[in-house]
Amino acid sequence: MSFWRGSTVWVEDKENAWVEGEVFDVKNGTAVVNTAQGKRVTSPLGKLLPRDPEADHGGVDDMTKLIYLNEPGVLYNLSRRYALNEIYTYTGSILIAINPFTKLPHLYNEHMMEQYKGVQFGELSPHAFAIADAAYRAMMNQARSQSILVSGESGAGKTETTKLIMQYLTYVGGRTSGDDRSVEQQVLESNPLLEAFGNAKTVRNDNSSRFGKFVEIQFDGSGRICGAAIRTYLLERSRVVKITDPERNYHCFYQLCASVKEAEMYKLGHASNFHYLNQSNTYELDGRDNSHEFSKTRRAMDIVGISHYDQEAIFRILAAILHLGNVEFAPKKEHDSSEVKDERSNFHLKMAANLFMCDEKVLLSTLCFRYLKTHDGNIAKALDCSAAVASRDTLAKTVYARLFDWLVEKINKSIGQIECSRLMIGLLDIYGFECFKINSFEQFCINFANEKLQQHFNQHIFKMEQEEYTNEQINWSYIDFVDNQDILDLIEKKPVGIVSLLDEACMFPKATHDTFAMKLFQSFPTHPRLEKGKILKSDFSLSHYAGKVLYQTSFFLDKNRDYVVAEHWSLLSSSRCSFISRLFASVPEEPSRSSYKFSSVASRFKQQLQALMETLNSTEPHYVRCIKPNSSHCPRKFENRSVLHQLRCGGVLEAVRISLAGYPTRRTYSEFVDRFGILASEHKDQRLDEKTLTERILRKLQFKNFQLGKSKVFLRAGQIAILDARRMRY
């Protein structure tokens, strides 16, 4: 790329990522640039990118309309539109949705839904309803199932966007029915229920989904909703027992503590009374009343048909978990054994047993002992205080996870999944790529999922590129496509992928995170995507599509071990509460010696992901990338560096990269002639069609590698900059 004095450019900036500039001077491969902020900076020519000085100040509604499709062009286009409350922008068929952090009711009313109904995609302004309508029309016209993949980091607005898409689909495909519990209402009403039990406040988001969700909305032959099914992925079980300030546990616990009748009945009081909630000092959320939210959760339970008996049992279980968390242990006189610490702990143990409706002594025994099988029968091995606490927390996590799974099953049964339905639109609301100061097992699983989805995304974008070239009858066969199969093999390939090595370590009692890391580096001494940690040798970093992430392995083994404790199941399956005993009806098969059975979280997640990918591959995908514009949740505030990072993580810039591999600039012949006709003024009196005139201009400038399609000219990277430079001289 050549630049000279007067060239309009983008130059890198520490604070703003990129700023506008104009080249003042060029010497020895370095440019002196005057920036829009009034500074004069120097930059290597290779680090400058061309800028369109005639770019619309309001931005363009589709990034493919940008003259220069590059990183700063994309960033500033989004920034300009966001400043005007234009929160939606297309990149081809991908919708980018920027969280406005304010209510925009005029965008989502029934009138707006009617506007988008049946309209050709791209004719109206970008909108979540347009994506939903495109999916619905494609399903009806092609008789093929569709999927809409909504991604983004916590707080970017994924869940709200998914709700809006669901709202639109129920508008165009809803049944007219006097039934108060129609399918579409139950699908929508399942959201507050799943949010109460699956969402929590995190550092980045007051209502963060701590699980992945795939909703299949099923349609009959006439396009009416006839059923639905919800699948969930990787609920963050550890949150039930461990939180950090200023985060919260799952919403349902605080709602229950703020209820009047139930809180008194189950002897709860304020949330600060409980260890599982008071590890953080945050109990309230801005703009949310826990008591009011409890009523909404009750209403959602009614809608999906949960009986009042089962509702009471659910709240008993939540209360029991809270009381269980307050049971503390003290060492007994015997070596490595423990007992209930004091009267306060005894009270909470008694309350937990009463609420679980099980024997108090048996409950205590399951917490303080582990049972081993021998030839002479079962032997009870006493647990020390830390092991008893771990057993207590395992029980709490197991009960909560079983309850969450039951709720999902109940919603599915209530809504009704139609097995013979051939058409569906799947909505995937899943955690985006994560990279924090401390990245543990959860981030590893989340980023593994995102690598899988990124490969699917890349393949789809590349296919769309091929279709565009085919439709325009131009040659595309030489364009390379680089995917991320190598890192997926590193993570999941048997027998020596990271997941397999982790499972192997978890099955050896003496294995530690250090021995796991050592085996990992021995197995992959020179893998280009894997590096050792610089400070701790047990840490490892992976070069993901969105950037490098350093993982701390300290708790990898603990978090991957999903122990099924036979005594816990036996205790609760004999509960006098039929709801609880049904939850634990199928006692897991015991291993040969220990009553603790190892189950791999990562392997189960890998299987779920594989099933999800098979479903997605059988559908036509549509993509929504949600962006969080700032970390302070303020409207009209746009933080360039943060947004740029999210564009990389969401694969938007990867889509741009795939476009750059071919012909990033495509212009209709009339657009091209309007802008560059001045370069062939000698032909102005000749009656040439626009395609011929376009070719004459390009031949005159001795361009190569361009292609002329049926309706557009396709230019290689950098060619438009040369045309602009020539045009400036006229």
From TrEMBL:
What domain of life is recorded for the organism?
Eukaryota
Task: Cite the InterPro entries for this sequence.
Answer: Kinesin_motor_dom_sf, Myosin_head_motor_dom-like, MYSc_Myo11, P-loop_NTPase, SH3_Myosin
Kindly indicate whether the keyword ATP-binding belongs to this entry. yes
Alphabetized, the UniProt keywords read: Actin-binding, ATP-binding, Calmodulin-binding, Motor protein, Myosin, Nucleotide-binding, Repeat
- Stretches assigned to the Myosin N-terminal SH3-like domain: 4-53
Which SUPFAM superfamilies does this entry report, sorted A to Z? P-loop containing nucleoside triphosphate hydrolases (SSF52540)
Q: Its GO CC terms?
A: cytoplasm; membrane; myosin complex
Where does the record place the region Actin-binding?
Answer: 609-631
Q: Where is the Myosin motor domain?
A: 58-728
Q: Which residues bind ATP?
A: 152-159
Gene Ontology molecular function: actin filament binding; ATP binding; calmodulin binding; microfilament motor activity
What family name appears in the similarity comment? Belongs to the TRAFAC class myosin-kinesin ATPase superfamily. Myosin family.
Record's protein name: Uncharacterized protein
**Which source organism?**
Vanilla planifolia
- Upper taxonomic lineage: Eukaryota, Viridiplantae, Streptophyta, Embryophyta, Tracheophyta
